[in-house]
Amino acid sequence: MPKDLYDVAIIGCGPGGLQAAIHSASKKAKVIVFGKPRNSSLYKAHIANFCCSEKLISGKEMLEAGRKQAESFDAVFLEEDIIETKNENKLFSLFTESGETFTSRTLILSMGVARKKLRVKGENRLVGRGVSYCVDCDANFYRGLDVAVVGNESAATTGAITLLSYARTVYLICRKLMITDTLYKQLRNSQVKVIQDTWVKEIIGTNDVEEVLLKNGETLKVNGIFVELGAKGALELAANLGAMFDAETISFIETNRKQETNIPGLYAAGDITGQPWQIAKAVGEGCVAGIEATEYAKKLAKS
Amino acid sequence: MGQGVLDVDDNSFESEILKADKPALVDFWAPWCGPCKAIAPVMKELEEAYGDSIVFARCNVDNSPNAPTQYSIRAIPTLILFQDGKVVDQIVGAVPKSQLEGLVKKAL
């Protein structure tokens, strides 16, 4: 058994993840929560329609309060993104952006949904012709070529570092990097050419990507551009574990009323399971997931 | 109908896909690719519905470098519809079922 084995690991610290943490930790499960509060869609929101919160409070305040509640039951919080997940021998391994590994008996996915597209000229037309949304999937097609990665967070940064093993030149285009110090140091010591304080204005190419025009007026000659906004999402982290998605959109993780996915020990709660985008739904699903995951972890510990 | 999604590689690509007596939809994928895993059940569902009229196949780009080069594949999953050995249309990425079904219906 690994030294620090958790009962319940939660990716995402929005209302779904927090409620799951509160319920699991209050039942004496050993709980760890990963994620950055500002990535929750609640962070910048004002709450008007959530039961029993008559006085308007900000999303930020709510997230802070939820964390304090969960911490009061000894849940551990780590403000880092998860960049890889594995499921072996009935245990989940989680790899953080700083290169640490955590192991847990159960995993609750509650990282919400985020937009993946850049929404710039040339992007849609050149998908699969140099525009990619998945470094892990497509890096191999860019051996010896020049590529750019765009994004401000862990997915773009780790993606750029990964691409160094394949591509000849790797640019990282970002407004301002929001990553851990450890990852920042790793980036600084790498051959990635970081272009800061700007963004992509247009992707140019006749049949394939040829150039990327930046907002600062600069033009990069590249064969490919990887759009990696925010943290890694469901398609990267959950699909690799074998989780089923809804066939209609391939965007949401399928769960039953216990918030169980098709993979034993893997649960999902909140926006990641589909609409409506409401705190009340996220909290409700988080509650169920937290209780169910704790039960499962306790049974597994005894077996 | 229930044949399952056929595995093809560089060796069998010509006989199974290009010279098939039916149109063929090929899913270019790899085992390390999350979106590829997400779309696999959709391919299976469509095969159950349309498998009589169309060959549903998948090609692991990891083991078969020629086919992806031939069709300029630079992102996976890429799904290409072939008819009489020629590319009719293609879709890149883990798209919704309705979109993939739309592609399939072009060959019916």
Give an account of the 3D structure.
The complex is a heterodimer of chains A (303) and B (108). With 303 residues, chain A is an alpha/beta fold. Chain A has two domains: 180 residues, FAD/NAD(P)-binding domain; 97 residues, FAD/NAD(P)-binding domain (3-Layer(bba) Sandwich). Helix content of chain A is 25%, strand content 24%. The two termini of chain A are 13 Å apart. The relative contact order of chain A is 0.19. Chain B is of the alpha/beta class and 108 residues long. Chain B has a single domain, classed as Glutaredoxin (3-Layer(aba) Sandwich), CATH 3.40.30.10. Helix content of chain B is 34%, strand content 26%. Chain B has four helices and five strands; from the N terminus they run E-H-E-H-E-H-E-E-H. Chain B has a five-stranded mixed β-sheet with strand order 1-3-2-4-5. In chain B, strand 4 and strand 5 form a beta hairpin. The longest helix of chain B is centred in the middle third of the chain and has 17 residues.
